[in-house]
Design brief:
By secondary structure, the protein is of the alpha+beta class. Helices cover about 35% and strands about 15% of the residues. It folds into two domains: about 80 residues, Phosphorylase Kinase, domain 1 (2-Layer Sandwich), CATH 3.30.200; about 180 residues, Alpha-Beta Complex (Aminoglycoside 3'-phosphotransferase, Chain: A, domain 2). It is built from nine helices and ten strands.
């Protein structure tokens, strides 16, 4: 790979190497996948800085990418990191085996929640998230093309601002744990039925455990319904199985709240 537009430190590390561009996921970033590395290119933000910070903090604590090189140039961040082995949890191997997927997901979420957050460098509690959501609303950064059909419109909110007001007025009590922040199936890697790593860690940090549960619930439901698989649906799944396997009593109000909060990101 020879790209003169890349910053020098990044270019020197990837020159001559073959790569493929990853098209999976909802992220706006450009992701180039090499044999042993991944280059993530996106607009520089608090999230890009958070991802580097949390990956460094998690070294030795959880299986996450190692940051090889990170720089910001012309308001664009370039993060070169090691590649996690295995397949994404949204791979057909797991969508065709709901029980195996459940085992993987519950193992992954327990790995996250077992971490001591006493010295966690990243705070994504509601005080922080709602301020970030407010910034997105005020600066027209809410992607209205990628929201749930029922969120806005005749039977939902009339605008992102009205949703923000509802979120501010209906804040639930938080149960703080170490949260991935975007705990969807493409962000969990698995090999041989074992979790090998987590990616897309820009929203990771201390937060309510229902942040993870809500995004995971939505991701599993959408993947099994065929939303991200060219319309191919999979059988043998009820999203409620997630709570049964985790032995957690569903809290519909919190589930709704954190799914709606994610609409502003």
């Amino acid at each position: 790979m020879e790209k003169t537009w890349l910053p020098d430190s990044i270019r020197s590390a990837v020159n001559g190497k073959k790569y493929e561009e990853n098209q999976i996921g909802m992220s706006s970033s450009k992701v180039l996948v090499f044999d042993d590395m991944v280059l993530k290119i996106q607009k520089a933000s608090m999230e890009t800085e958070n991802e580097v910070r949390v990956c460094n903090w998690l070294k030795g604590r959880l299986p996450v990418p190692e940051i090889i090189e990170y720089c910001v140039s012309s308001e664009t961040s370039y993060c070169l990191m090691s590649r996690i082995s295995g397949k994404m949890a949204c791979d057909e191997t797991y969508l065709n085996a709901p029980e195996k997927l459940l085992e993987v997901v519950t193992d992954a979420i327990k790995m996250l929640w077992s971490l001591d957050i006493a010295d966690c460098p990243c705070n994504n509690t509601l005080d922080v998230k709602l301020e970030m959501a407010k910034y997105n609303v005020e600066n027209g950064l809410v992607d209205m093309e990628n929201t749930e059909p029922e969120t806005f419109g005749p039977h939902g909110f009339d605008s992102p601002r009205s949703l923000l007001c509802w979120l501010e007025d209906n804040r639930p009590k938080e149960d703080i744990v170490f949260s991935h922040g975007d705990f969807s199936l493409p962000n969990i890697f698995v090999d041989g039925g074992k979790v090998t790593g987590f990616i897309d860690l820009g929203k990771t940090g201390a937060a309510d455990r229902w942040q993870d549960l809500a995004i995971c619930y939505r991701s599993i439901a959408h993947n099994f319904a065929g939303k991200y698989n060219g319309g191919k649906a999979y059988k043998g799944w009820r999203p409620e199985l997630l709570f049964e396997r985790l032995e957690i009593e569903p809290e519909p109000d919190k589930l709704k709240y954190y799914i709606l909060l994610d609409e502003l990101f």
